[in-house]
Automatic annotation (TrEMBL):
<keyword id="KW-0456">Lyase</keyword>
<dbReference type="InterPro" id="IPR029065">
    <property type="entry name" value="Enolase_C-like"/>
</dbReference>
<protein>
    <recommendedName>
        <fullName>L-fuconate dehydratase</fullName>
        <ecNumber>4.2.1.68</ecNumber>
    </recommendedName>
</protein>
<dbReference type="InterPro" id="IPR034610">
    <property type="entry name" value="L-fuconate_dehydratase"/>
</dbReference>
<dbReference type="Pfam" id="PF13378">
    <property type="entry name" value="MR_MLE_C"/>
</dbReference>
<dbReference type="InterPro" id="IPR029017">
    <property type="entry name" value="Enolase-like_N"/>
</dbReference>
<dbReference type="GO" id="GO:0050023">
    <property type="term" value="F:L-fuconate dehydratase activity"/>
</dbReference>
<keyword id="KW-0460">Magnesium</keyword>
<dbReference type="InterPro" id="IPR046945">
    <property type="entry name" value="RHMD-like"/>
</dbReference>
<dbReference type="InterPro" id="IPR036849">
    <property type="entry name" value="Enolase-like_C_sf"/>
</dbReference>
<keyword id="KW-0479">Metal-binding</keyword>
<feature type="domain" description="Mandelate racemase/muconate lactonizing enzyme C-terminal">
    <location>
        <begin position="199"/>
        <end position="295"/>
    </location>
</feature>
<dbReference type="InterPro" id="IPR013341">
    <property type="entry name" value="Mandelate_racemase_N_dom"/>
</dbReference>
<dbReference type="Pfam" id="PF02746">
    <property type="entry name" value="MR_MLE_N"/>
</dbReference>
<dbReference type="InterPro" id="IPR013342">
    <property type="entry name" value="Mandelate_racemase_C"/>
</dbReference>
<dbReference type="InterPro" id="IPR018110">
    <property type="entry name" value="Mandel_Rmase/mucon_lact_enz_CS"/>
</dbReference>
Length: 439
């Protein structure tokens, strides 16, 4: 009998703030970081499960401590007890009453729970020798519904309604798998748009993105209106009318500010406006959406759980949503959110970038295409070309599209040297930086 022998955690940080990579209106100096977790087993082949929470520097130690707090739920258990009962496992982690007090189902503890659940899905799909998207797609509609905690959802989506969506997809799965493996899944890029970049750098990267085959680019906005007007107009003039331009305010505005700010940007023709205000403000998003229509409004990367997504959809507060692989309660809760979006007919543009978020979320989008919606050409997964070299199975982007992963697992495993070199504060990279600063 194979058992889980350890839950190992690592505080991994990359000094990205040195180049303003990842800078936006609310986060001027992010150091992209991963609270990284490994579920080790005593399997003779070295089978392990990998997961991570993305953070942006300070606080990654807090996030890592939250991961370690889940050790008692995992270590010593037979792996069958976890990987053959992933729905029950997720409910158990969310149900620890003493840890639940820290949420419930939100914030640091919920993100830690999500990463351990994701590591369990990684373990399960590695054991099945399938990439995670395929592992999910090969589940029956009944098995998929069994993964989801419908508590707090049934006023919007019942298990029977979810089952009906999944059964409708069932006969088309094999054709969709073949289509996905041939065509890949559309990507859009945020690489040109970081707020700390000069106009020259932004335009050079925008031209490069179009040459590389991307059909949508995204620019960060929200610091100074005159800069946003200039940058958006320059970008539009550079990429032409056929490339979609989205903007992302990263929660910068009050509701009234958002409405005033977005009026002069209307003429640019925006594909969507992301996170205009607080990620918890359902009615605020609805008010902005009404005021700036037909400009599409979006949120979700900081959506803390399925209940928030339910409310945004019920209130008609958004035109599209972002999901994030490492913020909510893992694969299980993201399946609930994808089914909610399908039920309400709202498109999903998954959030990525950061550390490992592209690697993770591609699997969820692809599983959605095969097993839930059958749609991919009217949506796209975010792509940022940072830090992929640290992953054992990095994303493959060809002509602006994510190619379907073929290696078993959830693509979360990092190279051991990348982990040890970037350990905070004693890894090689951080020791060298502190020597530079001391000089
Ligand atoms: Mg965003």
């Amino acid at each position: 009998m194979v058992k889980i022998t350890a839950l190992d955690t690592f505080d991994v940080r990359f000094p990205t703030s040195l180049d303003h990579d990842g800078s936006d209106a609310m986060n001027p100096d992010p150091d992209y970081s991963a609270a990284y977790v490994v579920l080790r087993t005593d399997s003779p082949d070295g089978l392990s499960g990998y997961g991570l929470v993305f953070t942006i520097g300070r606080g990654n130690d807090v996030q890592t401590a939250a991961l370690a707090a889940l050790e008692h739920m995992v270590v010593g258990r037979p792996i069958e007890d976890i990987v053959d009962r992933l729905g029950d496992f997720a409910r158990e982690l969310n149900g620890d009453s003493q840890l639940r007090w820290l949420g419930p189902e939100k914030g640091v503890m919920h993100m830690a729970i999500g990463a351990v659940i994701n590591a369990a899905w990684d373990l399960a799909s590695r054991r099945a020798r399938k990439p995670l998207w395929r592992f999910i797609a090969d589940m029956t509609p009944e098995q998929l519904v069994g993964q989801i905690d419908f508590r707090y959802l049934t006023d919007a989506l019942s298990p029977a309604q979810a089952l009906a969506i999944l059964r409708e997809a069932e006969p088309h799965k094999q054709a969709r798998i073949a289509q996905l493996e041939t065509e890949g899944y559309p990507a859009y890029t945020t690489s040109p748009g970081w707020l700390g970049y000069s106009d020259e750098k932004m335009l050079r990267l925008a031209r490069q993105a179009v040459q590389d085959g991307f059909r949508t680019i995204k620019l960060k906005v929200g610091l100074r209106l005159e800069d946003d007007i200039r940058r958006c107009r320059l970008a539009r003039a550079t990429v032409g009318p056929d490339i979609a331009i989205a903007v992302d305010a990263n929660q910068r505005w009050d509701v009234t500010t958002a409405i005033e700010w977005l009026k002069p940007l209307e003429s640019v023709g925006l594909a969507w406006v992301e996170e205009p205000t607080s990620p918890d403000d359902v009615l605020g998003h609805a008010a902005i959406r009404r005021a700036v229509a037909p400009t599409p409004i979006s949120t979700g990367e900081h959506g803390q759980n399925r209940v928030m997504f339910k409310q945004f959809l019920q209130a008609g507060a958004v035109d599209l949503i972002q999901i994030d692989a490492a913020r909510v309660g893992g694969v299980n809760e993201n399946l609930a959110i994808l089914l909610l979006a399908a039920h309400f007919g709202v498109r999903v543009f998954p959030h990525a970038g950061g550390v490992g978020l592209c690697e993770l979320v591609q699997h969820l989008a692809m599983a959605d295409f095969v097993a839930i919606t059958g749609k991919k050409e009217d949506r796209a997964i975010e792509y940022v070309d940072h830090l992929h070299e640290h992953f054992v199975d990095p994303v493959r982007i060809v002509r602006g599209r994510y190619m379907a992963p073929t290696a078993p697992g959830f693509s979360a495993q990092m190279h051991p040297d990348s982990v040890s070199d970037h350990l905070f504060p004693d890894g090689l990279v951080w020791r060298e930086l502190s020597l530079t600063v001391d000089d």
